Amino acid sequence: MPHAALSLRSTSSTPTAQADLTAALQQLLSEAGVGSAAELLPDPGPTMPHPRTARVNTLKMSVEQALQWLRQPPPEHRRKWEAVVSEAWGRCADGLAERAAG
Description:
mainly alpha
């Protein structure tokens, strides 16, 4: 049996519903004393790091060995690892600068 009753599109009420939602959002924003919803979001700066995950093949190394490698890579990998970390921090700093300017 088709789910025709579950259709969310209604051409007659869409502009009214959108206007109602916009008005409700503006009311909530004014009650919160902010100009936009983005101002309600926490600042994702260095004090709030993003969670990081890594998959570890425990047939080849233990989780503890993987953590040690990530904290202190072997000399033969250190240059490449430092370049990856430097690039990631550069992108993070660029994003923060754009956010501050915008």
